[in-house]
């Protein structure tokens, strides 16, 4: 049995300096990136929240830069068990680094979105909202999936019409799975590639403001 994945807590970027009592948004970057990437979105996020941008636990094969949450090459390409292992690493990091947060949301891009949704499936009660950008829900069943049909966690799923990175089969699966297992806010942005746009960030801000304020509508 392989050792469990571990997130380097020292690599996490935090904002603001004084975050006691603030709702916490945890950001998970995509393949080949690192904790500095999504941290640049902080000015576009709502006021009154704390932000933690974490570094994925794996290093992609040379010459790819940055970090990865799970392999996307070879026999283990996007394997559900690998996504689940990354999600468990995130939950372990939260146990150690954010046990005092009054409420927690996740924002993930690409691989980070897949891991965010998988973490929701493992421990939905821990999260008040999930923002999944240019990502997907991992195929396969998990023990708590049926419970999600009742609890309906709040999820924002945004993607572009010109995103050619995520396989169409995974997009199709996610488009069927999320409405059945979450309270979904879905947005498709014309012309957007595998990236994030200003229009999408504005929609994300509104979604997170409702989470911050406890709004149900």
From TrEMBL:
InterPro entries: AB_hydrolase_fold, LYPA1-2/EST-like, PLipase/COase/thioEstase. Residues 23-211 form the Phospholipase/carboxylesterase/thioesterase domain. One of its GO terms (molecular function) is hydrolase activity. The keyword Isomerase does not apply. Keywords: Hydrolase. Pfam families: Abhydrolase_2 (PF02230). Belongs to the AB hydrolase superfamily. AB hydrolase 2 family. This is Phospholipase/carboxylesterase.
